[in-house]
Amino acid sequence: MGINYHEAERLLTLETRSTAYQMKIAPMGILCHQYYGRRIRATDLSYLDRYYDRGFSGPLYEYRRDRTPSLDTLPQEYTSCGVGDYRINSIDVINADGSQCADFRYVGHEIRAGKYAIPGMPSVYDNGGEMETLIVTLQDPVTRLTLRLYYGVLYERDVITRCAELINEGTEPIVLNKAASLCLDLPCGDWDLMHFYGRHCLERQVERSPLPHSIQTISSTRGMTSHHHNCFAILCDHQATEDDGACCGMMLVYSGSHKIEIEQDQMESVRVVMGIHDQQFSWRLEAGASFFTPECILSYSADGLAQLSHNFHDTLRHNVCRGRWKLERRPVLINSWEATYCDFDDQKILRIARQAAALGVELFVLDDGWFGVRDDDNQGLGDWYVNRRKLPDGLAPVIRQINEMGMKFGLWMEPEMVSEDSDLYRAHPDWALTVPGRKPMMGRNQLALDLSRQDVRDYLYGVLSDLLRENHIEYIKWDMNRCISDVFSRLLPSGRQGEVGHRYVLGVYDLLERLTGEFPDILVENCAGGGGRFDAAMLAFSPQIWCSDDTDAVERVRIQYGTSFGYPVSTMGSHVSASPNHQTGRTTPLHTRGIVAMSGTFGYELDPTTLTEAEREEVRRQIADFKRYYWLIQDGRYYRLTDPMKRNDFDAWQFAARDGSEALLNLIVNRTQANAQQFRIRWKGLDPDGFYRIEGEDTLFTGDALMYGGYAFPLMSGDYPAVQLHLVRVEEA
Ligand code: GLA
To answer: Which atom of ligand 1 lies at the shortest distance from residue 477's CA?
Structure first.
């Protein structure tokens, strides 16, 4: 299948359906990168390597009379450090003698069926017979620091995964100051970098720019994935479009501080290094110990950005998301946050629930405010027992009544955090991440618990599992509302404090693994002040993530657009909220809000008791439509039809069934004008030879006409009108 070794040329080639990746064990045991791109017949691409004498890029000792092969110019699979490659290095070490070198040389490799796993961290998995693994072992001959490079080949999805393991096979401790997951050397070309930046309430905005001759860094030092820079980037041809051109996506499967470095070097070659951020990171590797990096998912498309996104969508949906809800139809929910904030009691909750049930909502989610003393966001975190003033009889009767209305019940929680004003903090102030003798930063007036500690995790597991065991809770919203700072764990010695940030992330995974293992039927939605931890690792525990705290439909078009480059629609938590919107004050039609929220997991976040009869009717229709289109939206192909970053008069996006049998086109007008231009859109993903009708209309279209000639929309008026067209393939009339 996907991995071949050619002994004579010492070539290792990974093949997927449409791509190939080749490395060569070069003389002196240097593991060189040869090629990543469109699939080619297995051939030795080392004819491309021509070595020249480059001034100030010196050769290896073994080549001292031949000045051409230098680590500083060779394309490599993972770099050594301190030995003459002056580009970004994959690793940074301090050896027991104080030297800062590692020089990795090939030792051997093995090819295995199936997919490797990474201890303690989520990664891409094999559903059975889909994947193969290559492990290449290299070693520093002096310290015997061993590097194992893992490659997973997911043939059908054009995906290659990578991670590294560092094993100290020497006798003295070694400190890792940096250990990247990926190093990818690409040849000189005309590359653009696309990355996904933002802030709270404006996550994953797309920026695309040509690579400069310097090192560009996309990173988070916040101890979390962050709203500010997602751990996903794309390198593409300068000319690449949605439908054409070469592009390569790189996604880190990790939820903590991360760093993507991209360097265009002196010879215009490009190196990408990606992994845990090295700021405030160090890991002490005792003799015999091993360290695993998180995984990086790579995909290459020769056919533009849409195909690249489809590769990531399918991989995340089928090979990263886990559990019962990964593919099962998920319930349409109503969330109480924007309806009540922390101000509610059981009667108010039940009134909202009753209205929601009558509209067809299937899951009621009680958000923040139900526990401890929690009248606003200044207190109570950590006290995960019911607030009896608001819910005098506890959760059980509320849940029972909601279940009797025909809805499931879900609950918000923020387990990683603690308020200073809480019983938990008063009992265990040392459980919070703070540095002794210093005042900590107080994001949202709360502190993070030290989840690197087993005792803290055991406590949380005990409290949360009791809560879940004692109540019929079928959904959890797992929130995290501040960045990590003041990183210091009281249980680790001074020489290991650089490990706390990563150990915190491993602790989060451990707690989530235990809880989702014990309660496999609970649907978990991840959240971090909206989409602050929107990453592939979290998707292994929660198949959906609250996309943003900005619920304004117009803003959401851009946020969901950026998110869609890496992440499928089935992962994007998206709700219809009140108008005027609580974050922006903007007024938009309910119809428009419905169309935007439907391009996600779909739900409501408003007080349905305030809706007019006409609005209630509209909500009923939306829910019925969403259920009808559910599989088309969640399982179909997603197509971006416009680029909202360009501030168009309108934006459009589309879903197409994989067999071309139906499609759903969504269009929202951003700027209504008198005597406006025609909005013409070319449909995608149809059967060009098929015949189609738009539901509710008589005209018969051919697939090729809609795809190449397009479709012209009637003029629309009012603020932010939107249209949703359902196209169905029919027999020729
Ligand atoms: C975060 C979430 C919101 C809501 C509040 C509750 O901001 O993103 O959806 O749950 O917390 O405090």
So the answer is: 10
Examine the residue annotation and report whether 535 is marked as an active-site residue of this protein: yes
pTM over 0.85: yes
Q: Can you tell me the distance from the alpha carbon of 290 to that of 396, in angstroms, rounded to the nearest whole number?
A: 46
Q: How much is the average pLDDT of 335-351?
A: 98
The pLDDT value given to residue 732: 77
Considering the four listed CATH numbers 3.40.50.300, 2.60.120.10, 2.60.40.10, 2.60.40.1180, the one that applies to the domain covering 650-730 is 2.60.40.1180
Q: How far apart are CA 75 and CA 87, in angstroms?
A: 11
Q: Is the peptide bond before 580 cis (omega within 30 degrees of 0)?
A: yes
Give the separation between CA 116 and CA 119, rounded to whole angstroms: 10
pLDDT in tens, 102-120: 999 999 999 999 999 999 9
Residue with CA closest to ligand 1 atom 1: 529
Q: Would you call 416 a catalytic residue per the annotation?
A: no
**Pairing, β 91-94 against β 30-38:** unpaired
Taking the C-alpha atoms of residue 576 and residue 595, their distance in angstroms, rounded to an integer, is: 9
Q: What is the sign, positive or negative, of the torsion defined by CA atoms of 51, 53, 57, 59?
A: positive
Ligand 1 centroid–CA 369 distance in Å is: 10
Options 192, 535, 555, 651, the catalytic residue:
535
Position in ligand 1 atom list of the atom nearest CA 529:
8
- Is the pLDDT at 733 greater than 80? The verdict is no
Angle at CA of residue 598, ends 666 and 566, nearest 5°: 85
Tell me the CA–centroid distance for residue 85 and ligand 1, in Å.
46
d(CA 663, CA 201): 30
Q: Share the mean pLDDT of the chain.
A: 97
CATH classification of 3-319, choosing from 3.30.300.130, 3.30.470.20, 1.10.150.120, 2.70.98.60?
A: 2.70.98.60
Cα-to-centroid distance, 530 and ligand 1 (Å): 7
